[in-house]
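Lecture notes, unit on protein representations.

Consider one protein chain, 336 amino acids long.
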Amino acid sequence: MQKISAANYPLATVACFDATCGSLPRRQLDVENNNRFLENLAAAGAESLLIGASTGQGHLRTVEELDTWFRSTNEARLGNAIKIALLRPEDGEAANRGLVETLVESDFQVAFVRPGNNLPPDATDSDVAANMLPVVKSISDANMAVGVYSIPDVSGIPLRPAAVVELLDQLGDRLVAIKVTEANYENSTRRFLECERLESLKIVQGWDPFLADALRDSPARCGVTSGPMSFAIHQYRHILDSAAVEDWNEVTLAQAAVTDLFVSMQDDPGKFADLQRAKMIMGLGHPISAEITSDAVEKVFSALKAVRRDADRRRLAKSLNLMDAGPFAERLQQWI
């Protein structure tokens, strides 16, 4: 198996939903349905799959639940798609060492780490780097590639270039990528792109409406790790194919259609959309500790119906019907 480096880091990664079953107050992972979902994503062209992402509510999972989620992927037939994990500093060094062992046993090739949610709001860049270092060292020592991740909606504070430089000094070429999921492009992705010390690293855009900006700014360096790719895999393949031939007008128009659905699941414009609504529409179950309302579902369908171009609507409906067995499969079929 080829080792992952910054040079061969995948252009596009799906931040995967987790199929769930059972009842409140806490649902469990539906292993069979989840692996079928991963297989369908791979068959639809997903290059890599991120397990433990916030869009799959990984931030709400216990360490034991994450371990089960990672191990369960061994049963999925994914072809050449690689597996990537997300780990959390607040779980502690011992727990994360155990999770790294699971990742090695389960053929994951990359693991990302975000700032821990146990940091104070006034933490310095050095504080952030020190918080993340034990986990990223465990990953590196296991001969896996390392990514770092800024998602202040979950961690409470952002990751900044100066903190990544400190980690790069410790890890060298084992650090391969930076994932950025922030609501302000200029203050996040653009700053990482402009930092000369980090020019060897891939930048993967995580706030999807900024994907076209990132690809235009640096097509050789920038890619995407996307939660919406879980529900829009066919549309994203089209976006990336258009970017490959520098058809930026088509990239912008196609991304706008995804953004229409993204906004329909976004209760606060400064917060990431609640993509669990799309997960439920796809037939992957409700969130682990909540219920999706019919009003929330209808808001998504209204946005889908209002998508301006028929081809965009068809690709989005086909993606939302990826499982071909969800509660809205017949309704989605009218646009496919």
